[in-house]
Amino acid sequence: MSAPITPVESLQGRFRIASTDHRRRSPFNARLLAAIADRPDVASILQAAPPEQQLPVLLLAAVHSLVLADASIELADWYPTTRSEPRTDDPFPAFVRVCQARNDELRAIVATRSTQTNEVGRCALFLPVLAELARERGPLALIDIGTSAGLNLRLDRYAYDYTGDGTGGGAWRVGDPSTVVVPCGVRGPAPLPSAIPMIAGRIGLDREPVDLADDDSIRWLMACIWPDQHDRFERLRNAIEIAREHPAAVITGDAVEGLRGAAAVVSGSGHPVVITSWVLNYLTPADRQRFVATLDEMGADSDLSWVALESPGLCPGMPFPAEVADSFLTHLLVGHWRAGRRTVRHLAECHPHGYWLRWNAADGQ
Ligand SMILES: C[S@@+](CC[C@H](N)C(=O)[O-])C[C@H]1O[C@@H](n2cnc3c(N)ncnc32)[C@H](O)[C@@H]1O
What we know:
By secondary structure, the protein is α/β, with parallel strands linked by helices. Helix content is about 35%, strand content about 20%.
């Protein structure tokens, strides 16, 4: 009989699987993950993390954060985020040396951090639906639930490059020139806006917001980007600069408990639009029900909209249309509460980071 698999061997297996998953989108990470899978001493660092956080990308982000904090270390020579011409030979011996020399530090990082994102690419997905809402209702008041660093609240300071069917096959630039330009390939009859809608109020809510004034928190957010996804890294860096220059208020609190309070902050400034992007999957089923019940209560009092960019299959119990309710892809949906009546429509299937959208031809915008 073979010996039972040890916890470290099980972790090594996770690294092996993660390597295959990363092969297409991040060859840099895939190479490191495959090498870690053969090194129990390196993989075991992740045992310092709580069991539900023992994700291979957490260890990669922890090492990336050390590289970003001190670009003079040897390993930084391989990272596209710290060198314009990174080395292309095997980074793993240098990676192991960092893991050995800074083992305690890495264990402390994985024990206390979890991976975090704030994906401004998603603004290209929000924009068409927000422009439609602004056309219908006038200036908008954005309430971004699970806002992270609040970067998507400044979507009116970014420029957008749409290409594809929605424009008749050509290129479609929206927004003033900006250091953040978000590209998005469009399939289907998307109602691409000719101008950025007027955002008259904005507020973010997050149970653990990223503090833009705190360099460690910002570095961690950046470390969670895969090192060879250079466009996302640069976009994030520039969006952080814009956000520091043009701050928007962010409240620390729970998505359900804090929803009404957050909406109250921007009350009266414009048509209230609640935004959620890759947030509802973190809520318990009961909390998701309470989230929608709270929207229903708010929508009974005054007109309200909700723009959701979520994976419906990860959020069972939401009032999403049956045709997407079981889908694990990313979908754009809009909820309207008008005169107390709720309707929810499916608008598009999307890339989770906003690189493309496929508009639902059946949607009668
Ligand atoms: C995957 S990130 C997405 C961030 C942002 N919406 C975006 O699209 O880039 C999920 C965010 O939701 C927040 N979050 C998770 N559960 C939450 C809850 N119950 N209440 C408030 N925020 C929550 C996390 O702290 C994190 O910032």
